[in-house]
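Backbone geometry:

***
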Amino acid sequence: MSRDGTIRLGAGAGFAGDRIDPAQVLAERGELDYLIFECLGERTVAAGQARKLLDPTTGYDPLLAARMRAVLGSTTEQGITVVTNSGAANPVAAAAVVAQVAEQVCSRSVRIAAVTGDDVLDAVRRIDPVVWETGRPLSEHSEELVSANAYIGADAVLPALDVGADVIVTGRLADPALYLAPLMHELGWAGQDWETLGAGTAVGHLLECAGQLTGGYFADPVTKPVQGLAHLGFPFGDVRADGTAEFGKVDGTGGELTRRTCAEQLLYEVGDPARYLTPDVSADFTGVAFETVGSDRVAVSGATGSTRPEELKVTLGFRGGWLGEGQISYAGPRALQRAELAGEIVQQRLWEVHGIPAENVGIEYIGAGAAFRGLAAATDVPEVRLRVTAKVRDTETAFLVGWEVESLYTNGPAGGGGARSSSAEVLAIRSCLIPRAQVATDVHITEVTV
């Protein structure tokens, strides 16, 4: 604890592919108590499960080692605790990766904690919950279920903090809980102090997307220009015992932190601001107020909360076949018409030559309104990129999609170029609920002695 009894939490990442250098700046110059890396989404945990199926020693964030190499020397030297959900599908293996990095870059002994228990595959098979997207019991689904990860809360992290872990790696820990756990540990917040937990959840939600609080995703060159996005500074929050906080960023870094950037982030991915459900609390953001307290300094107050849900959301991963993809560009006069002809040729050949039905094939004309999914009419444009996808049964068939697109070079409309192809196994993502009592978490400690 520092600075008039406040706790300073730094946002080191807002998603799995986030930049690393802003976290390094925070670690070296942010004067932090905690550095948090939020690196997990529903699709990234499923991707982690897919990697783990191929190799049981993997399944964690592929950038974990790089992130740790960038910050561990500074965090351990300054006594900054790192908390991350980069463990994804395999927190124990992730902790082993952190230990390897610590042996290389740290000048003192390091205690690493892996938090497990979010993997509830056996429990959902036993309970047979209703799947949200279909309205049918899990047992009525013919696809192979390969993963089930429950959103666990801050209480799962507290034992690791209690034993003084320097680095804590979790799996599907809810994003705001990454921040709420250190606040509960440091400020003595009780597990049923719903109003304060709601305030702490607001702090976590505002910080969890890192650069989005300092102008990333907010920026528009005409209506909302933001300077210095190439070196965007990630935010930190100074949190008081009553749950109010002040946000800032390291001096000299890019971006901006204003009431408007905070307001946009407050509502990001929030369906009902009066009832933002997390494993820890039902947070209420309707009374939140922001106040400018300096250059790139904004204070927040007014969040509260009520009793936490008795059930936890679970992300289910089903094997969904393979997705083959091919892309090719057309430019100049009648670019759209040539791309449309190319799409018709590929679709015809996928069915007549390879037996892939039209209903399994997707055709997009990127640059001509594809993002509107038919809500806006395609218009002629200087250049168009044709994207063909097809959902198929195996990797060999998936390869045919990109092959047919590339074949357009000498067998299709004039002027095609820049063909690319890929294929990947699909894990279909769905959701259900599980009783909280069915989820048991645990902490595994690894000591690195230097």
